[in-house]
Amino acid sequence: MTSAEVLYRMPDHPTLLQTFFWQFEDLAPDYPRLKRFLDHWEREIEAIIHSVRVMHQGLISPKEIRIVKDGGQLH
Description:
17% helix
C-alpha cells in the first residue's frame, strides 16, 4: 500500500498551502502509478505542487508470516 501526501497551492490563493492525500497500490521503488498521476497533475491541473511525501508498506511483510506445523479443521 502506498500513500502520497501532495501539498499544493492554487493560483487564486497562493498563500494557502492545501493537502491532497491518496492511498493506492503501486510498485516501490519506481512508483509508476504515482509518476503517471503527478504527470497528469502537472499537465491538467492548475494547482502548483509544493511537495510530495510518499509512504509505502508492502501488503505482507516477513514479520507477518508464520510457519504453522499442525493445522486443524473447523466444521
